[in-house]
Amino acid sequence: MDVRQIVERIVKQYRTRSPHELADRMGIIVSKCELGSIRGYYLKKYRIKQIILNCNLEEMEEQFVLAHEIGHSVMHENLNTPFLRESTYFSKNKFEVEANRFAAELLIPDNIIFEHPGFTVKQLSRLTGYEEKILLLKCKINSL
Q: How far, in Å, CA of 118 to CA of 44, rounded?
C-alpha cells in the first residue's frame, strides 16, 4: 500500500491537509470526550464514519491523532479501532503503522523537509510544531 500516493490523492481531491477540514469535507463525524489514556479511535456504524478524540489532547497531538484516525477511515474503512490497544507512534500492528504513516504524510508535506535541507529533526520539530517522534516517523518513511 503506497500511503504517500493515498495521501496525495486525498489532499488533491479535498484541497486541504488540515485534519479537521478533511474530516468535515469527507463527512466524518468528529466528537470529543473523556477517554482516559486512549487518545482517540475510529469506528463505522450503520455506514456512518465517526472519530472519537480524547478531549484532553493538546492542539498538535489532537491534529496527529485526528489525522491518524482519518487514515484508518480511508485505509481500513470497515475496521473499528477502539480495540486496537497499541497506541504508540512506533507500534508493530500493521493497521497502526499504516495509520501513523498516513498522519505523518498528511501533516508534514515533503516540501517542508526539502526546503530546509540542513535542519536537524529537532529544528524541523520546532519549525512544524510537531513532536520529534513524528518527524522521525516522516523521515523514516521517506528515507529523507
A: 43
CATH number of residue 35's parent domain: 1.10.10
**Cα Rg, the chain, nearest whole Å:** 15
Query: 115 — phi, psi (to 5°)?
Result: -75, -10
pLDDT, tens digit, for every residue of 61-77? 999 999 999 999 999 88
Rounded to two decimals, what is the model's pTM? 0.85
User: Range of 56's domain?
Assistant: 3-142
What's the structural domain count of the chain? 1
User: What is the amino acid identity at position 17?
Assistant: R
121: Cβ contacts below 8 Å, ≥ 6 apart:
132, 135, 136, 139
